[in-house]
Amino acid sequence: MGTRTGACLLLIMLVSLCFCPGARAWDAYVVRVEDGNTISVSERPGREEPTVILRFYGIDAPSQSQPFGREARDFLLRLMPKGAKVSVDSVGEDDQGTVSALVQVAGTSVNYQLLVEGLAWVSRSTCKAMFCRRWYIQEHQAVVDRRGLWGLNMSTPPWQWGR
């Protein structure tokens, strides 16, 4: 391979790194846990006002008025109290400025942990990444083990609640 071809390949690889999901990861600090699916964060520690609202990508937790809605929120409050440092991997943003994200605390995926605990469903409409297959398996295991909301005789996902 010639020097020019090698240089072009290197340039292509470097440019592609700028567009990979890991390139958008950033650290933030929890200002508020809004519910079992949403947190407000600041990009600087100690701030009282949030700079970004994050919605957990690929999952739907029960709404506050649903069974296990408070448990999902309380789980997040224990996992990431006010001021906790989180790692955020932005996936997208809606029209209201809410960022859809994969969130980690101390290397643990919060999105995935909500599924493990039986406190969320995999979102059938948004979870399209390859790792979502693993999430479906974990959701199924929570159903089989009757963890969290799966211990109820009937669990209605948030997208059908109140219809």
TrEMBL record:
Residues 1-25 form the signal peptide. Keywords: Endonuclease, Hydrolase, Nuclease, Signal. SMART domains: SNc. Residues 24-152 form the TNase-like domain. GO terms for molecular function: endonuclease activity; hydrolase activity. Pfam families: SNase. InterPro entries: SNase_OB-fold_sf, Staphylococal_nuclease_OB-fold. This is Thermonuclease family protein. It comes from Desulfovibrio porci. The lineage of its organism: Bacteria, Pseudomonadati, Thermodesulfobacteriota, Desulfovibrionia, Desulfovibrionales.
